[in-house]
């Protein structure tokens, strides 16, 4: 996990910058500016950091440095050649040691174009994010990644890289996934979608089409370290078109049990996972989803770790300000123990008692467990994957059902509804929930279930 937008304020470069005078080479590696006002007592601009609070912090000699995120994370100046050289050395260091690849955090940052007269926060908000924004998703960031791709391709096999880039459109995201750049970019569209057949189909169709244009390999994500786990999201009432993050209201309310159907959420999450693993492209799985973990909502304020929480006041605290600790609680490996087997001491975030039933120990080797379903699905995926294409089965894809065929004659069928539907004839390879029997030996696919099958000869 590489974070090229910024360093720690404890990094030797930044410590050198603090000890060096204005205009020095050490300071030029970062973004220092004089303040506004008669004595420079006001920040260079009224910008707010991603983690809330000012984006500029003053140092003892009066200058200010930019930190798009936390105060302890000063932004690099990517116009400085030493920054480029240092990251190329770092990537070569790990590539030589045969890492498979790199996740590039905040990949849409790095390149910045800051004029002498900085725009205000209000002006920044109105600026288009079309490659010309002064701070985010600038077109010139791809020159950096072209350098990196040249380095990655010197190794056998070439090192992979995936961008975490929150950008406006699929077209902008595809630039990061270019074969001449990083090669892949996280696609968060499914992560932000309700459990709905039409919405899933639209997302898959659009992203595969975009990948075909750019020659990149698409990616699929349902959960990550920044959002509510999908087993929880799918157990909550639908948003009904409201513009709120999935699960946000439930988390802000403290995670009330009367507001969630946990069994339905996990059932849908398992179905979504088999849907995802049947798709062309790369599936990225977030630690804990293979155990069927739900979001941990009951975290006392004094035990929260996310800087987003500590940098906002209670009055201003929405979901983003509450923090992301609920999906970051250490995994349960054993049924018992001070940290459910995660380590020899206590966990750095509180683990609820219900973790015991979702531990690796509780699921390992247990037929039908979420862990064993993931293992079986991944084995099958490796056996079945071939060409990066799919064909929608229009005969089966009606209403709440979504079905597609992959090269090699195998089929994925997902029932997003509640009522069971008949499966076509064929060998069932795996299902996310137990299947049901119908009349005349037909096999029924229950609601919130996905099955893979090899079609009978036609």
UniProtKB/TrEMBL annotation:
Keywords: Glycoprotein. Residues 1-328 form the Glycosyl hydrolase family 13 catalytic domain. GO terms for molecular function: alpha-amylase activity. The keyword Glycoprotein applies. It comes from the Bacteria. InterPro entries: GH, GH13_cat_dom, O16G_dom_2. One of its GO terms (biological process) is oligosaccharide catabolic process. Belongs to the glycosyl hydrolase 13 family. PANTHER family: ALPHA-AMYLASE FAMILY MEMBER, NEUTRAL AND BASIC AMINO ACID TRANSPORT PROTEIN RBAT. This is Alpha-amylase. It comes from Brachybacterium paraconglomeratum.
